[in-house]
């Protein structure tokens, strides 16, 4: 469809060029310049209109999407082939031979994707072979770490109450606020399954749900990403073994603004002053911590973006140094234009250097905590706001259109309103403001009509 559209646009441009050269070639140069500018202006307007209509159509669809009944996340143990997967995980847990462990992991990948071809996990094989010093610095062996991960993946009953269920966070026109609350050990359970590629992806409305890229491909960026991941596994397991009774919680929330308030004219006509902005050129986003801090995740509408593949920019880096954020990909459906995903309580495990293709693992991140670092739900006071911007692929000037500005304001507000119970009142206040605005707008129209009639 897009190729056909591009071809059609190119044909139109050629036709205009022929018309321009044929009809005006003998005319005054000034006239030629004016006509050329006019044609260029028409082309730009056509493209802007086309982009705006496309975005409006997509957002109209988003407004009315709702999932009924509420979907439950399918645990790995619910898979029809779990019996075979369990045997392979047990091999990884008990075998002393690293090659048998890796062969079992390759069989798990084969099962997950229903591929009868031989699977060669070049990425993880090269990593274990080439980064022995890395494991020495972690004071562990790759074989032992894989055994511990397999044990965690096999023992769901240790981390979850019986009949525990998780409602996935879907697009909804009925619910303003949805939330999942997990403990650090439950997150570790899911992360281990993501590593072994035994998690279940619900459908294509969700991002990738495992670390297949990391272990399958031998790419410099992915080899660095494995360092971040294994550092998390080692430190998280150490903490769990040393203090099994200490529970830290992580929440994943989805804020939605109501359909009636989607246009948000109240923002465009608000007389309130913007707050002061302080710019620090020396600190990074992740350097700001504490109760008054909300860290921006310049997100993909599929939460995590390329965190589970080759991505290595802002969102993906956050998901590397705060690896517990990766579980959000399991539970969060693609975001609509009036939604934000907010994650609170994740712990930072690693340092990094560079950006993009130059990204490097820079060692373990150590942080001391006191009681002031946690809220009353025992979540770390680290809050991430995932908000995705409109992708203006061809016409950057479209971002100045009023409806696009309104959409970005809505998206930002859905994130900045927060996740506390008190903050949910702000959503209601916002909706009431919009209702008042609609009534005021109707009164203004009546008044204007009366004035025109009197004149």
Give a quick summary of the entry.
The protein is of the alpha+beta class and 455 residues long. The protein has helices at residues 2-24, 29-63, 82-94, 98-113, 122-130, 132-137, 142-154, 184-195, 212-216, 220-242, 265-269, 314-321, 328-331, 402-416, 421-454; strands spanning 177-183, 249-256, 294-299, 339-344, 350-353, 360-364, 383-388.
Write up what this structure looks like.
- This protein is an alpha+beta fold and 455 residues long.
- Helices cover 49% and strands 9% of the residues.
- The protein is built from 15 helices and seven strands.
- It has helices at 2-24, 29-63, 82-94, 98-113, 122-130, 132-137, 142-154, 184-195, 212-216, 220-242, 265-269, 314-321, 328-331, 402-416, 421-454; strands at 177-183, 249-256, 294-299, 339-344, 350-353, 360-364, 383-388.
- The strands form two sheets. The chain has a five-stranded mixed beta sheet with strand order 1-2-4-7-3. A two-stranded antiparallel sheet has the order 5-6.
- Helix 8 (184-195) packs antiparallel against helix 10.
- Pfam families: PARG_cat_C (PF05028), PARG_cat_N (PF20811).
């Amino acid at each position: 469809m897009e190729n056909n559209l591009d071809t059609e646009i190119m044909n139109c441009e050629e036709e205009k060029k022929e018309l321009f050269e044929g009809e005006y070639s003998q005319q005054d140069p000034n006239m030629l310049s004016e006509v050329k500018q006019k044609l260029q202006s028409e082309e730009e307007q056509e493209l802007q209109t086309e982009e705006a209509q496309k975005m409006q159509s997509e957002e109209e669809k988003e407004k009315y999407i709702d999932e009924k009944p509420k979907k439950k996340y399918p645990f790995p143990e619910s898979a029809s082939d779990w019996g075979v997967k369990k045997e392979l995980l047990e091999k990884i847990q008990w075998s002393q031979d690293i090659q048998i462990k890796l062969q079992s992991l390759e069989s798990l990948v084969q099962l997950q994707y229903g591929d009868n071809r031989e699977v060669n996990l070049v990425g993880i094989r090269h990593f274990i072979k080439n980064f022995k010093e890395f494991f020495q610095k972690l004071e562990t062996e790759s074989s032992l770490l894989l055994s511990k991960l397999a044990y965690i993946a096999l023992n769901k009953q240790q981390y979850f109450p019986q009949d525990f269920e998780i409602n996935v966070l879907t697009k909804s026109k009925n619910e303003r606020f949805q939330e999942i609350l997990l403990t650090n050990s439950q997150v570790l359970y899911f992360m281990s399954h993501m590593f072994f590629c035994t998690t279940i992806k619900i459908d294509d409305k969700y991002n990738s749900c495992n670390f297949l890229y990391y272990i399958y491909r031998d790419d410099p960026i992915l080899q660095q990403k494995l360092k971040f991941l294994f550092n998390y596994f080692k430190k998280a397991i150490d903490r769990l073994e040393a203090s099994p009774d200490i529970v830290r919680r992580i929440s994943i929330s989805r804020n939605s603004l109501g359909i009636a308030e989607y246009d948000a004219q109240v923002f465009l006509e608000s007389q309130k002053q913007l707050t002061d902005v302080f710019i620090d050129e020396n600190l990074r986003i992740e350097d700001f911590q504490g109760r008054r801090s909300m860290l921006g995740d310049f997100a993909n509408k599929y939460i995590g973006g390329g965190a589970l593949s080759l991505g290595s920019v802002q969102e993906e880096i956050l998901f590397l140094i705060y690896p517990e954020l990766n579980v959000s990909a399991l539970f969060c459906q693609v975001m609509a234009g009036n939604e934000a995903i907010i994650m609170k309580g994740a712990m930072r495990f690693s340092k990094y250097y560079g950006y993009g293709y130059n990204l490097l693992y820079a060692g373990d991140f150590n942080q001391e905590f006191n009681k002031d670092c946690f809220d009353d739900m025992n979540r770390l006071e680290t809050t991430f706001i995932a908000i995705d911007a409109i992708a203006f692929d061809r016409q950057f000037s479209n971002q100045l259109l009023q409806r696009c500005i309104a959409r970005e304001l809505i998206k930002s507000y859905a994130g900045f309103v927060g996740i506390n119970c008190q903050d949910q009142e702000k959503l209601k206040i916002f909706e009431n403001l919009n209702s008042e605005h609609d009534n005021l707008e109707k009164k203004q129209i009546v008044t204007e009509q009366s004035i025109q009639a009197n004149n």
